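Reply to dn_fold:

You asked what the input looked like. This is it:
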Amino acid sequence: MELKEPDSKKQRKDNGAKVDVKWVGMIFGVTILISVCFSFLSETLLERVGTGLAFVVLFSIVLVGILFDIIGVSVTTASEQPFHSMAARNLPEAKEAIRLIRSAPKVSSFCNDVVGDICGVVSGSASAVIAAAVIRNFEPTAASIFKLFLSALVAALTVGGKAVGKAFAINASTPIIHFAAKLIYRVKAFFRWLRGLFGK
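and this is what came back:
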């Protein structure tokens, strides 16, 4: 006698997660583009500025990674409800906030995985460039110690900053998403203004 597969199992198979090939392809391309831009800008700046400004560039890259990680966590924990109230008051950024929350998996993937990982890679290579410039006149032992120290410092700031950022993101997800939505709305408004300006 042929055994029939239970309906619950069939339903689980039918409802299985599907890979969004278009999204994966877009993320692949965007990751390459952002990585190239970040790497080019950081290396160009590091070659042309002094040691002090080089450290500012390095820690700015780390900060960007932390900020995007905060947004990525906030969008997964924020509720739509406060933004529906804002939309009822005709606040233009409310629609952007709701769109962000409804696209939480993609937004989180972009912020945490794409930008966050790129910043981690670029900050590592930037710290190597800075270390190479600083240790030219160091003794071999001192040079090795400095390279290890700088690498460890960057890693500690990245991990520690993201740990603090995650707690902040969970506790203040609504104002964070509100700020991000307001920024996105203003950027879009600026591009609309440019399009109208050059379209005339």
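The helical segments are 7-14, 21-48, 51-77, 81-88, 93-102, 104-134, 140-171, 173-199.
Hope that clears it up.
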